[in-house]
Amino acid sequence: MNWSGAADIAAMACMMAGAVLCLLAGIGLVRLPDVLTRMHAATKPQVLGLLFVLVGAGLRLRSAADLGTLLLVGIFQLLTVPVAAHMVGRAAYRTGRTDREHLVVDELAAAAEKSDKSPGGHSR
User: Fold this and answer.
1) How much is the pTM?
2) Which of 19, 20, 47, 101 has most Cβ atoms within 10 angstroms of its Cβ?
3) What digits encode the pLDDT tens for the residues 85-124?
């Protein structure tokens, strides 16, 4: 087997692993009970699954232009998804959409209470 055949097999394995992770993320979005656990399912396995798919596509395409585009897509996902998840989590917390009984540590409660009491604070 030459390098091209081995790269094609590795690409197939990466794409299958990525597809399974993306499927599990989609199932998690439907099956999990609250915003915070759904947010976890929407970010962690989805991004890892996408990265596996991108690596598989890179192994299959092998041109410099394609690899550069795939690299940019991966970097953009790694930079934007955590920020978006953080903002969704904060918004859910502030609007009371989270089940606070199940939080082990609630580090945001003091900061949210403090900002609500300040003159420029937002009310719930």
Assistant:
1) 0.82
2) 47
3) 999 998 998 888 888 887 888 888 888 777 777 776 555 5
